[in-house]
Design goal:
This protein is of the alpha/beta class. Helix content is 31%, strand content 12%.
Length: 141
């Protein structure tokens, strides 16, 4: 029995990575499904108390308005009564801010206007270079 020797098998020191790949793929699918749900928000600093009046010595504010039908207006000179689209409104705001860069910008919306119309107006104003936007309110009776 001298010629017959049993060979010992070497132990295999490998990690089975298949379960880790499965977990990684499941996590990837979860992240892909939840990514569209995460939406971008608009930062608004809400007042802690009653709204304050604008200072008398500030520049004349630019008032961007939305009526109940969702039409946009910009209160500049003679264009007060003409409805404009968002691109024209952004161009007019940029032109006005070039001449008076410290002029405050205020959004005035009808009480019955859709929330989406206000958000689109605020996003347009931000894209036009407006650093901060105020919301016009009416004091309670």
């Amino acid at each position: 029995m001298h010629g017959y020797q049993r060979r010992r098998r070497k132990r295999v020191a490998e990690i089975n990575v298949v379960p880790y790949i499965d977990v990684m793929l499941v996590l990837l699918i979860i992240f892909m499904a939840t990514a569209p749900v995460i939406t971008q928000g608009v930062k608004v600093d809400l007042p802690q108390a009653e709204a304050e009046m604008m200072p008398e010595d500030s520049d004349k504010p630019l008032v961007a308005s939305i009526d109940a039908e969702g039409r946009y207006f910009l209160d500049i000179g003679d264009s007060r009564d003409e409805a404009v689209d968002l691109l024209a409104l952004a161009a007019m705001v940029q032109t006005q801010l070039n001449t008076t860069p410290k002029a405050p910008v205020v959004v005035k919306g009808d009480a019955n206007v859709r929330y989406d119309a206000v958000i689109q107006l605020m996003a347009t104003l931000k894209a036009a270079g407006v650093p901060t936007v105020g919301l016009m309110t009416q004091p309670e009776q």
